[in-house]
Amino acid sequence: MMDFExxxxxxxxxxxxxxxxxxLGVRLSILGLREAGINDPKGAxxxxxxxxxxxxxxxxxxxxxxxxxxxxxxxxxxxxxxKMAATFVNLKRSLPRRDGxxxxxxxxxxxxESRHLAKAYFPEVEDRYEAQLEAYKVMxxxxxxxxxxxxxxxxxxxxxGRPSGRVVCAMCGEHVQDSRELAVGGKNLCRPCAAGGYYxxxxxxxxxxxxxxxxxxxxxxxxxxxxxxxxxGNGKVLLLKAIGxxxxxxxxxKEVNISxxxxxxxxxxxxxxxxxxxxxxxxGGKNGGGATLTPEIRDFLARYERIEKEVRxxxxxxxxxxxxxxxxx
Length: 329
What we know:
Elements: H1 4-15, H2 20-36, E1 49-53, H3 58-67, E2 76-78, E3 85-94, E4 102-110, H4 114-121, H5 128-138, H6 141-144, E5 145-153, E6 166-168, E7 175-177, E8 182-184, E9 187-189, H7 191-195, H8 206-212, E10 224-226, E11 229-232, H9 234-246, H10 249-255, H11 260-274, E12 279-282, E13 290-293, H12 295-323
Parallel strand pairs: 1-2
Antiparallel strand pairs: 1-3, 3-4, 4-5, 6-7, 8-9, 10-11, 12-13
């Protein structure tokens, strides 16, 4: 490996500026690589190294610079623990497990007390961050870091290489790689659809909507309320139309699958709420009895059907406008 100053200069070029985190990250990496038995991380050992970082701060850029590991290469794994620590895995040190997925590794943790010890090394430096920057260059490793031997399990789908597979989320239609999907209710879902994601936006992607446009539509339903509750809607419309066709309340009740008594109850309730007669009944005789709809309810029905149609058409139009396809099915 290059000397400390060369590694620090290279890290600063990647990170953009020199700071205490860069110094700490470079020294942490040198220690971790040495303890893990990695001598040439960007050369002969580049396929033998994986690093788990536990914080998204300046030191992480330094670790990437020194080790050559990165998220894009799948050799760096980010664990959002908020700890100034990293674990160095030598993939040659697999443990004797049947699937070969467990490895002996080295975890290096930056000691919290080193931040306070730094001032003692450079008491003349008033700015504590400047004092830390200079102190971290010269402090012995045992004052800066705590080293632990650990065991790390790595699934085959988390290893570097080509994607292990791709599935389509049953909800949003987007593709998910490397077994990151979740099985929910017998369906494969991406994690945002299954448990919520960091972003808010269209529920379906444009690609998914285009694929599903033959299967999706919208239904609109209309009813009239009075006194805080519904009293006139599709069910009552069907009953009234059946009376108009059959000329009989009993036959209409059979068609809509309700009892004669319930049909009469509906009629009386509607008459009370609307304030108009609904049916004209004839007593039985030579030609038999019957029931006909009054002119008032026929006019009301025509108006109701007109507004129902307009609501449906408007819903279809808005559905196509917002979702880009479909209509009422």
